[in-house]
Amino acid sequence: MSDIPEPVRREVRQEANFGCAICGNPIIEIHHIVPRSEEEHNDPERMIALCRNHHELAGPQAEGITPDQLYEYKKDPYNSDLVDYDFYFESETPLVEFAGCKCQLRDLDEMSILSVNGEDLVTMSYSDGVLQFSARLYNQEGDLVAELNENEWIAYTEDVWDLTYNGNQFKIWHDKRDIGIEIRYNSDTDRLFMRGNFYKDGALVRATPSKIVFPGNNQVIGCTFIDCGGALALSTK
């Protein structure tokens, strides 16, 4: 896990208007323009928000994007004053559909979409048309292998098989046939669809397109959550 203080992370994210400074991709990592191999620091003036691809191109061994170029992107990020990407909502009350359950998000709202054994695994916040997405993914052994914090990719280990972001679809795989989480946005209907396989304390909570199935042959189907501050709170114990 990264040791970058959260206030520094937020400053770097806000500076880039919550997207990659180069392309606007909302799934980002924090890059040290001055590598910590040269100087141990968490100075936001020498850090930048980048998507995974541009982060790799800006690495000290990549010889792709120079530090001077990165400083220019810091001054003039892709998202100038308004986040403009495919997870940007036009309505004031976007509807999230998660495994057949509907969760209404209102402006300035924050909602726990899925909580298992007292821990929020999927959380969303929404303000001024901008969706901030947080998630925690564990493997079957109970190890935290991937984490998103307000769209920032802050953990990535060899236990995660792959991560892709293509336009209005975002996926993380546990392995080739095991999707950890998928998020898909339909701009025509202004709806966000999610599904995935969530492990917690060794148990599997499976979110299919139509329902949630968890140990004990328990199921949740077709619920609607509006103005309640939280959605699904499950127990696998």
From TrEMBL:
Domain HNH nuclease: 7-56
Descriptive protein name: HNH nuclease domain-containing protein
Top-rank lineage group of the source organism: Archaea
A GO term, aspect molecular function: nucleic acid binding
Species this protein is from: Salarchaeum japonicum
CDD domains, per the entry: HNHc
